[in-house]
Amino acid sequence: MPAPHHRPPSVRMPHLWMPHLRMPHLRMPHVGTALVRTPRAALVAAIAGVLLVLVAPGPASAVPAPASDLAATEVDATVVAATDPDATDPDATATHVTWGVRTASGDLGADRQNYTHELDPGESVTDAVVVTNHDDTPLDLDLYGADGFTTAAGQLDVAGPDVDPVGLAAWFTAATDHVTIEPGESLQVDFALTVPDDAQPGDYAGAVVTSLGSTDAAGVSVDRRLGVRIHLRVSGALTPALAVEDLAVTYDGTVNPFAPGVATVTYTVRNTGNARLAAGQDVRVGGPWGLASVQAEAADVPELLPGESWPVRVEVAGAWPLVRLGATVTLDPTLPGSEGAGSVGAGSDGAGSAGAGSDGARVADVVATASGWAVPWTVLLLVGGAVGALLLARRRRRLRGAAEEARVAAAVEEAVAALRATDATDDANPADANPADQGGPVPDVTVPDVTGSSDTAEHGVAVRS
Length: 465
Hints:
This protein has 465 residues and is α+β, with helices and mostly antiparallel strands. Helix content is 16%, strand content 36%. It folds into 4 domains: 39-234, Sandwich (Immunoglobulin-like); 242-375, Immunoglobulin-like (Sandwich); 379-433; 436-465, no CATH class.
């Protein structure tokens, strides 16, 4: 007998743990080009960096001085613009000068926060500004009128002295364009506003500005401007109006098919009338027929002068992807600083109604709508995958059925071919085909009854040898 076969014992190799080697992250330094400023670019930078401190709650002054030396209504501020690229500490090179500006008291009013006048075309008015030197050295200042505009921060600012006047500044005339004020002294400077005969009715804004510019030995230019706002309304037909332009809505969904996404609504508010206007905002987003409507909080539109615009971007959380998403923006305009001005409220018939301004003008609500696609891609992918799987399963069943039918047909064809081959052999060898010729027994053959009866003895014919 052969010796039994023995399987050698298996040898288990010990698991060798290799430590994970983490390659250090190499941070590439940012490579850029150096900025070289030309003298002209430096001058432009200096002008761009100048800030006008406009007196909204009260008059203004340049640098904080002791409280005992300042009027209670004066506010101090200093802005330094460095034109030297190597200058890193503007305060170290700034010339500290302190002065204040405020409205003059007289027949036009006392303790005014700013200047507010309403004139007919061809009419003029004379007012005055008071400039106070809080320093211990004489102060030389330029004085001029400047047109106003709304900044990107929503605040009123004025153009620089190098900008050609086009509105209120073109109608401004001061008794002098330069003043010298002794330490601790105040100087009242008269100025006039003369409206041309062909001036368009509406609101105009600007300021009376005092400016101090200097350049020290280090090449640092310092320009400080302090001023008081001027609001002027030219009498005539007042047509305050706002418009919503370029309204669009986009949708950013989530991977979770059962969670809402974020809709982003963008548009521009433009003052298309001739009066300065501010506005409250209401932004709503919803599906077709207002389904699943969501309201968003939007900051108020700041005061816009005629012709100015304000870009708005509002993100609305909780919006559902209902294929088509609609956005509705409603503006509620107000007339700032006008007696009797009121905010607009929509009536039951959808028409806007508002409080009247100083000349009885009425402002209507502004309603704008737009729509965009909010396709639920995750849901579509899931549904598409399910439909695709169903179609694939049906196709596979059809293929399996067709293969089974082909197999059966082939088997039948093979059986028929074999039967035909047997018949052909029997025809070629009849002796082999008849067992009686060979003396063998003949099997019983029962012929069934065509009537379907199972009684073969009565209805059948038996053939025996």
